[in-house]
Amino acid sequence: MPEYLAPGVFVEEVSFRAKSIEGVGTSVAAIVGPTRFGPLRGKPEVVTSFAEFTRIFGDINNLTLAGTSVLNHTAIAAKSFFDGGGKQLFVSRVANYVSPTDGYSSIADINNRVTFNSRFPGVMGDYTLELDWRDSENLLKSVETSVPAEGEVIFLEATGLSNAVRTADIDIRAPDSRFPIDIKAVVRREGDHFVIVDNLCEITTDDDVVLTGTQLRLDGAADGDDGVLMSAGLVAGVSTTIKYTQVTAKRPTSGALADGTSALLSLTSVTDLSAYTGVDWGTLTTLRGTLNEAGTEFTLDGSGLNAGIVLPATFSLAALAAAPSNVRAMMIQRNFDISVRSGGSSGSIVYSYGNISSAPDADNSLHNVMAAVPDKRSDQLSSPVSCTLANGVTGEQVVAALYNMFDSEALNPVGISVDGPRYLISLTGGSDGNVPAAIHYGGVTDEVNGSTGFAALEDIDDISIVMTPAAAADVANHQAIVAEMQKHCRKMRYRVGIVDSRESMSLSEIREFRSNFDDSRLALYYPWVVISDPRGINDTITAPPSGFIAGVYANTDVQRGVHKPPANEPVIGALRFAQDINRFQQELLNPNGINCLRSFPGRGHRVWGGRTLASDPEWKYVNVRRYFLYLERSIEKSTQWIVFEPNGERLWANVKTTVEDFLYNEWFNGRLLGSAKTAYFVRCDRSTMTQNDLDNGRLVCEVGVAALKPAEFVIFRIGQKTADS
């Protein structure tokens, strides 16, 4: 009771009505079986479309179990479920690996600095990664300039030069105003003169003799004076012309350059610039290496990325001014996108990672974007590949590692290639393992690493339908797997299991198989369904019926209600059935609780049975069993507020009213048989509880309902009558 200690007006909230009961959903299904990809442990994730299923658990292509290619019945059943009207499907993937680390695809560079791994095991994890460099802008900037600043490196072209001499060991007359020379050289400004950088120059004499790599000196300089070319800005002779060209890499839009920034120099044709670079790169037209922070020097990679260059070689970008028409572009390779392709380099793209940096300490580095354990649950499920970097690795080493993993043929295409080089990395080593046995379907409860199989479904309350379509293709383990499903349904109480017959079973075989089970929470369907091949390989394939039947269950629940028998409904997607069942054959099967799938002229392909595998006639029909599970679960879930309430007449009356209101609504909607007075009863009083019950904290409420049974046998009695009045 509230306390009133001071005078005033007090407002209190009270309830004058009984609490209501909300009906639970009955159309949520779960499937347990092998898939091509996806998590093997932990709480299963719900998928609401087949596209979402393929995004997490792989496509519908075949599995390779124990070295044998088999149909992916789990994926086929999932597609059939959604095609038939299902909306929510929980998937628990099972697999049979010798070791928990088996089945994963991976690739690493030769130094193990960068390693890519498939997030989940499976052959589908043999992905092909295609890199697309984002920094595709041409960074080269070539500018004709005046006399350069102190220390600046430029490319100098001079004609008619007469204020320099050759060294004495070269047998040629020293030029003067009568014998001018022409020169092209990479030079650096030092005070009032220029110095040839690393002796990189080309000289043409007055009689067209071309000499390269020769040091020039000022008039009067002694032999051995190093590399002095000419006075800065000096123009000697009336015919002398001088041109200064500055070539650098400009700042890219993605951010400033850093030492060791990976870059690619592209040439339009084979270009010999050895006289100005000191490097002979032969017939290469694509050069890979790194830029310095200032964007003035390019270091060619010597690890094998540039054919014929065995050691790193650095040259000034100013040398490129010697062949401006042959230089196409300079592009850095720092930020990139990765497309994950399934089925090789020409396969479809299943996932994309955008804006990745080669810098290992960046927020968008490889090991952050493709984290081994992503922060978001959605990424943990759908991100197919992870990447790890070695400790202390640099950005330059990351790019070198990527090049080490690239497919050499795609990187250097022979002949005419419209698309140019492709940067492809192929993961290998994926495996689907062996055929899962009953123990793998049953699973284990593991609160640390995550539960598996049926055990993983125990923490999900919404599931009401379970199936194991792939088990029907395993003759050796089929019955044992169905037994695991039976145990799961009984343990979870509010679930029914759809049991598949095996392919091409005879009437005697299916009857013998049915005799192994007696449970109202199981329903058996026969035969298999013939459908068009969703893989596009064959014209048709046969599939277990459970995926189609689960779709019928879910669609019937939504359209009519769980009280409606899931029978006399079309099997969506069926072309025909693997075996044509006639009336006489069904007369052998139906009394045994074997639900037949039959084709009727003009009415298509339909579910023609609605019985459970129970011998108890009270639970003979699927809709009755499922409707009572619906009532029980709805009442249980919506009456949790009763626990620890004072157990007296007021509570009993409230409980009775709550349940009666719920059942009245069920009767009003046509789900119960009889009138409002005869369709149900609710008792919660001294007649249902003894003093011992009250002393031990028990509240007992008895509920009876008159469920609707299906009109399984429709009989019209027709006879003759006379026309007498």
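The record above closes out task 2.4. Task 2.5 opens with a second protein, given below.
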Amino acid sequence: MPQSLVVANGNLLINFDEHLQMRDFFYPFIGQENHSSYGKIHRFGLWVDGIFSWLNDGHWDITPRYHNGSLVGNSVAENKGLGVKLIFEDFVYTTHDVLFRKIAVHNLGDHTREFRLYFSHDFYLYGDKMEDTAIFEPELNAMLHYRKQRYFLLNGAWDHCQSGISEYTCGKSNYGDREGTWRDAEDGHLHGNPIEQGSVDSTIGFYKSIEPGKPRTLYFWIAAGKNYGDISRLNKRVTNLGPEKIYQHTYGYWKQWATKQGFKLRGIPKDAQKLWYQSLLLIRSQIDNRGAIIASTDSDIMKFNKDTYAYVWPRDAALVCVSLSRAGYFEPVKNFLKFAKNLITPEGYVLHKFTPDGSLGSSWHPKVRNGKSQIPIQEDESALLLVALWELYKESKSIEVVQRLFNPMVLKVGRFLIKYRNKDTGLPKESYDLWEEQYGVFTFTCATVYAGLKAAENLSHVTGHYEDEIIFRDAAKKIKKSILKYMYSEEHGRFVKKVFYEGGELKQDTTVDSSVAYVWEMGLLPADDPRMITTMKAVEEHLTVQTKVGGLCRYEGDFYHRNWEYEYSATLPGNPWIITTLWLANWKLEIAKTVHELHPIRETFDWVVAQQNSAGILPEQMDPHTGAPLSVAPLTWSHSTYVDSILRYTKKYQALKSKDKK
């Protein structure tokens, strides 16, 4: 299942599942070095009245959620059989690398009872399980897991830092027949083994007698560092400052961060506004402090191909930057563009995807095809970097950033876009499509290359590079002419998915693909151009998922995450995606002439709101019959597209309302 709650600070990120149990633990990069393992659980359990229960044993009613407009959790877990309710307020300290779980324990019984709370941790330091040590540190009254330069200290205290760990034990896990020390907790007592090495885990317990109607609060924390001194200093800071003050600082910071621009979201329903703010925060959770923008940190996708979405796709990241710039969040954009500058090859393009530290990521794009060498790229990823830089300048007027990036990014990428064209057609040469499945010349790619050249033209102008401005302008004009000549089918009255050579002849693939929306999105044609109108009507007609779930799939016959038990057809062409559904809504918004015509767009926002989980997390795609999230959640691109769509809507709404008043 996709993850249900995310907390992060740009160095440390933790994903919780639907049972509020920790599944992913990324440090020191967001999306890199997951010190957990796919399918493994860091358990939380409770003992009371001689009965033990883990949060995932089926006896809890659990609702993961956040405080409104904050990256601080506010989740509820209730076990009526045990007569207990727990309020989890999970967060990562914004300025230091410490995860906190603030847990209010409510005794729903009619007499004072002793509650024993257990945290069992099964770390995979550096992503595997070997050569680790788990040791109880008596000086700190804390549990420590360490190996090489990764140190994780586990500690806690009731209320105002009173007392701490009541019992502890270390042991083996996932070794031979050893399940882990979590089994030791189930009788309400831990055996106190102070150290273990190799394939290790640990469990610690916190005990407290609690009266009915008088909840007590446990603060549990994990401090992350690279040596013993780091985690010792962090633990001291927590105990000196107090977890409650840290909670207040973190909560206040995120509330201010989410609302700092003071947008008035006119015409937007309350639920849609709430998701907009939460989307901004969830986007930020997936951004590393060194600039990397991660597609998704949800590791559950591992079950499909033993790889994840925890990479930087330059396309996804660039489009996220466009949304962030329009929303007024310029610093993450500047950091990403600085990061991206170092990804560009000497030839002027970026490769498939990258790890959060800037290393080349895994790929399935070969350098040889049909016995011939090729550049293994998706050309749109290079072009969209220039689009992102131009959007940053338009919104922020950050001329210094543009000046610093002009030679290493604008000139290098822009000149590559000019050079990498077919001499016969004038179109971009072949590359892989945005869906990363096919090789050819795609309308989406062509549109982004045009937009990249226009961005290079504009960036040349604002920096005084007038000769380059003329060169880029001329190239953009030529490629636009070629796109309109070869990528539009007069017979079908719409733009095609791609063109390709067969037997020396250029042919069109007329599969209806939602990404052709980028013809108008990238400024190649206005949204109300007759060719664009017929194209988008075909997209809506052929790609609408005609089930109770609704939405738009990517293209006809889409097979990604297809449920082969379903019968896919013209009425069920594929699974619905958030981004594709919003692309259609954006086009309808662009051509709307009256406030009344905005109603279908509001319905789309209602549809997006319906796809979120209880915490406001949006997936990549959904099951077309059940609506269950598929692939990963959160998908950063889903949230950024939603943020941008809401901004467009409120701008258009105000313009049309003003027009009506006249």
